[in-house]
Amino acid sequence: MDRDALADFLLRRREALKPADVGLTAGPRRRAPGLRREEVAHLTGMSVDYYARLEQARSPQPSTQMLRALARTLRLSRDESDHLHRLAGHPAPDRVGSSSHVRPVLLHVLDQLDDCAAFVCSDTDEVLAQNRLSVLLQGDHSGASGLSASSSYRWFTQPGAQDHVVAEDRHEHSRARVADLRATWARRHQDDDIRRLVDALLAESPEFAEIWERHEVGVKHLEHKRFVHPQVGQLTVDCETLATDADGQRLIILGAAPGTEAHGKLQLLRVLGEQSLDEQSLDA
């Protein structure tokens, strides 16, 4: 691990970004160029102290999970992300199979969709990036690792994982998830990640195993999804999925037309989330 070079690289990348590049407003009294350390730390999901130690060349070796999160926050290209990993003493991410690197243009799209919940996921249903409204609606999935990084693994194996979806719709959600994983498995079943995931689900979830045996592929996804949220109650959102086949990734947008009840609830949820952040700042 080259701590000095890593510190300098992070500093330079942070200074090269403008607040608008990551969906933030510049605000008054901003003297230094680029993002503030606390902004990078918040967007990455790490403590301000830990990020400060990275830039001061006095941190322990960051994990690959933390490096991936930093690469997304700093809008690094694939080559820059590889460089970041090497500076931190890790090999560059394997390019075989599905990529976990989210292109900066997709991250920029997420930042602009401030009245919709939007996220990027891999072809094994690992959430790779979320905008703020997605976190408020569905929870923050940035800290998951191993098999639990896959939302489909959690859906079929973890108690309560299906509770945010209206009960009558859960079976159709399950069918769509299994069909998507079946298509991924057919395309690259020689890759360890999809094999481990499917084998684990077959062993741990009777529901998954029963649907898998049907050999369904291309099940029609729900165009509207009904969520149950503890703060705003039930809301029905439109669902749009955009695929980027080269990286095995999907951009999923959950929104509602202005003037509808669901749109009002999404905006209420955003306001409640901002109030929560303000309260945390006061507590600090």
TrEMBL record:
Alphabetized Pfam families for the sequence: HTH_31, MLTR_LBD
InterPro entries: Cro/C1-type_HTH (IPR001387), Lambda_DNA-bd_dom_sf (IPR010982), MLTR_LBD (IPR041413)
All residue ranges annotated as the HTH cro/C1-type domain in the record: 30-81
PROSITE patterns, sorted: HTH_CROC1
Superkingdom of origin: Bacteria
GO molecular function: DNA binding
Coiled coil regions in record: none
Name of this protein: Helix-turn-helix domain-containing protein
Organism whose genome encodes this protein: Aeromicrobium fastidiosum
